[in-house]
Amino acid sequence: MIYVLLYPLHQYPSLSFLNVLRYLPFRMMAATMTALLLTFGLSPWFIRRLQNRQIGQVIRSDGPESHLSKAGTPTMGGSLMLLALVMATVLWSEPSNSLVWIVLATTCLYGVIGYLDDSAKIRGRSSAGISARRKLYLQFAVAILVSVYLFYDFGDKGLSRTLHDSIPRDWAEIRNRLAIPFVAFAKHPIEIPWYLYVLFASFVIVGTSNAVNLTDGLDGLAIGPVMINAGTYMILAYLSGLSLFGKDVARYLDIPSIESASELSIYCAALVGTGFGFLWYNTYPAQVFMGDVGSLALGGGLGTLAVLTKNELLSVILGGIFVLEAASVISQVAFFKMTGKRIFRMAPIHHHFEKKGWPEPRVIVRFWIVSIMLAIASLATLKLR
After folding, report:
1. 304 and 189 in contact (C-beta within 8 Å)?
2. Digits of tens for pLDDT over the chain (385 positions)?
3. Cα separations (Å) of 247 from 146, 181, 238, 239?
4. Which residues lie below 8 Å from residue 174, measured CB to CB, with a gap of 6+?
5. Angle at the Cα of 215 (from 211 to 218), degrees rounded to 5?
6. Residues 336-352, buried b or exposed e (16+ Cβ, 10 A)?
């Protein structure tokens, strides 16, 4: 928005400095600082409002005993995170780019689902919230709606033509192609029918959203990997549309070349800034929790980024911490139903390490370290092709 409003004024000599708005790295830094300052500055007031309204965390009765003292800690801090994320992205991105609006819409809709879940927990004074089946129905409804819009060919007439033209041409040309880590994208194309891609993309979005939600069980545990993932997607999105000395960097690296996707780096940068601002108050011992309104929304945003940057399979490596958390729950439930025994002392797996005697900060920091290592491994695939 600022780009559209102010950049044309750079032609006046006294306002020539506004030419800096044309550069994506500047707007990325501006989005980061905007989101950080909004989250950091408004959080004390927001936390007081949550306390006054008695919007506090409900703790699982079967969880680690050390968590019982966290009961009543203000929750739904993710609402402020979404506000800062959306404002920073809208302010500094180019509003004509539909990919930015798609990831923002998905993030907000998943935030609504998380809000419904948090509200049910608070009203019922229970950690259950809305039923898992209802939550999955809502998540898949949003994901399928977004995926159909992205992958279905709407045709050339009336509203169908408008929907078709709203998708950037460079992204639409490769939307049905799957990028495989460690394999050159241009040399080994894998085409997938649109209806299969809708199911696949929906699974990526819903799976990532729930995996981040499961990871959000310790103070600062989820937001660390979320920022690391967002920072990595920021680099990947920026490289996908970067040209240096007249050469297409994406083609040189054998990754999807999508100039329009580079604008997604603004969203990623804003998410990193939001995360840092929130982490100041969410670090151990937490003064506020993000709640499902935050974790489901941020996870949905990361899943959508994976789809829009054509890094669906790479997200398994990059989001390895989230995959591990989700896999620990699935395997625990399945193994218990088959044998009546447990694989882990408690799932998700971060609780398993707590039950083994690891202090909470140790679990958090070590999970962050693993997430950083996975991000480095993901970026290393750019040259191992």
Report:
1. no
2. 787 777 677 777 877 777 788 889 999 999 999 999 999 999 999 999 999 888 877 766 556 666 656 777 888 999 999 999 999 999 999 989 999 999 999 999 999 999 999 998 888 777 777 888 999 999 999 999 999 999 987 766 555 556 666 889 889 899 999 988 888 887 767 889 999 999 999 999 999 999 999 999 899 999 999 999 999 999 999 999 887 766 788 888 888 889 999 999 999 999 999 999 999 999 998 999 999 999 999 999 999 999 999 999 999 999 999 999 999 999 999 999 999 889 998 989 999 999 899 999 999 999 999 999 999 999 999 877 6
3. 33, 22, 14, 12
4. 256, 258, 310
5. 165
6. eeeeeeeebebbbbbbb
